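Hi V.,

You were right to ask for the full record rather than a summary. Here it is.
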Amino acid sequence: MLSSSIIKLFSLITGSWAAYTPAVFLLSVRHHGGDKMSGTEHKKEHHHDDEHQCSCCSSSGNENIFCESEEDENEERANFTREITFLSITGVIFVLLLATEEFYSGSINGVLLSSAFMILYLVCGLPVLKSAFRAILKFDVFNEFTLMGSATLSAVAIGEMSEAVGVMIFYRLGEAFQERTSSRSKRSIKALLATKPLFARIIKDGELIETDPKEIVKGDIIQVLPGEMIPIDGIIRSGASDIDSSSMTGESIPVHAVQGDQVHGGTLALDGLLTIEAAGPFEDSTIAKMLDMVQNAAARKSPTERFITRFAKWYTPAVFAIALMVAFIPPLTGHGEFRDWFYRGLVMLVISCPCALVISIPLGYFGGIGSASKRGILVKGANVFDALGKVTIAIFDKTGTLTYGRFKVTKVVPFGEVSREELLKTAAAVEMGSTHPVAASIIEAAGETKIDPDALMTQSSGKGMILTKGDSITAVGNTALMKDFGITAEDVSTHGTVVHVMKNSLYMGYIVLQDSLRKESGRAIRELREHGIKEIYMLTGDRESVAGLISDELGLNGYRSELMPEDKVEALKEICKGETQKTLYVGDGINDGPVLVTSETGIAMGGFGSQVAVEVADAVILDDSPLKVVELLRIAKKTRTIVWQNVFMALGVKGIFLIGGAAGIAGLWEAVFADVGVALLAILNSTRASKI
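Predicted structure:
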């Protein structure tokens, strides 16, 4: 008895100080580092108007983590400090009472000592008991409050006062750190809010007007001073500056931007004054989409999370029922004393709370999403990580994905009496209605080109552009578009993209443009194979000769060329033999939308890629580097490893202690470790995901 009490006393002292010391240290570090941190006061944090359950026993705890003010965060930090201080003081008092009970019980009135334990129990446990009472009133019996409340009250009833107080103190301590760690992990994603521009400076009629970025419309001219955040996506109209995009893409090296270059909202103009023409409203900007995607990521649960949520709903009632049977059936059938079996039932009751599973698993996925966002990869939900674990086939779009998508006009071949300049100008006038990189290059090569307000421009998907004005029709595109107008285009045998031009049934000639392979594409393909991707293919609407050249240079397993948008979906299904759940597709254009949806995991190049591609994709790469696909696979693999480590650890330890509790080997102290201790270990393991 004496040795067990000494061990109990020693574990409490070391446990309290081990918990308290790093808490204060981390708190001071985070405070001086300027980071916002969650505070915790069990009584406050666990009582919501619409949700009486703690998040560790509820699958619906997806509170809005993006709407807290700095005052809220400061208050949480203060609450956490108060909670830890309170638990430290009560812990010291508890240690003194334990020592008194062990060494001076003969000289101290037993009723007085029991009363002291009872007061300490009520001081520590009243918030938990209140929450349990509210839950019962709402007919919610199986949650951590009712489990802990009933277990500790039952321990009081059979005279185990010290163990009831100890369970409550350690439970409160575990809850404080669970809340703190959860908030800290979520805020690694919430840090994106720090890049949200607070204001925009619009130039109107020669005057500067400061306004909310949400008031910006397409075409507004924005002034950005050196050192300021760029508030909107747009094109530089004057000035030059080094642009720091580390907050958006994870790229640490600034990029020099000059007149005519495109810039993203949320990036930083380091050393130059810029005037920028807004490409659209704030809600269409990169930073706005990032925030929206990450905010909605919490709602998209992985299959693993959904399994654990379903499992928890059955696990707790099942263990609760077993605990009742252990407590009452043996003594009622004459196998031992009631007090002994009732105590064993209490041990199992404490172990039955599934906190370690239900808290640590979403936390692990949150950490992985946060880690990806730091590297310029936006993952729209935890389900993406599980899907990536099945992928064995990767399929890439060509233009803008494996290549830069920045074309250069290398040859202009007019036919008949058409001049070189006339051919370029005619093509540029039609391409003004397109956002394709080829169109941008033709417009640039043609020089200043005006949009005809009376002309009707339409896109023939996968073929080209058509301009109609009265009875006049001009078409610019590939050979398939020319055939639609009964024109036999010139057969061009050259490497590069060929654009044919037709006006009023007259073939005017063709323009050759060449795109260059991204310097990191070859390395990305090699590393994908190292990460278990067995087959890699390319889909493109470009000509056979161009596609074959790139495929050979990158060492792909194959390719499909001259595809229409609808053909890409069929090509993907053919490549994966209908098993789309094993397929990863990476693309950036409007015509990639259907195939991004069809594949199990669609990844969009989101720099200035198509809005359609970004919207329908499961993940978005902000700097358009194919190497980030490898990075995403690596993060997904490590995140899932951490998640399953937590599953096996929690179930394994709880299983061992459930057997020990039923056999009478494990007591309430061991049960506290099996519940709170394992939950804390699982949470600490989950935080590794944010540091991948």
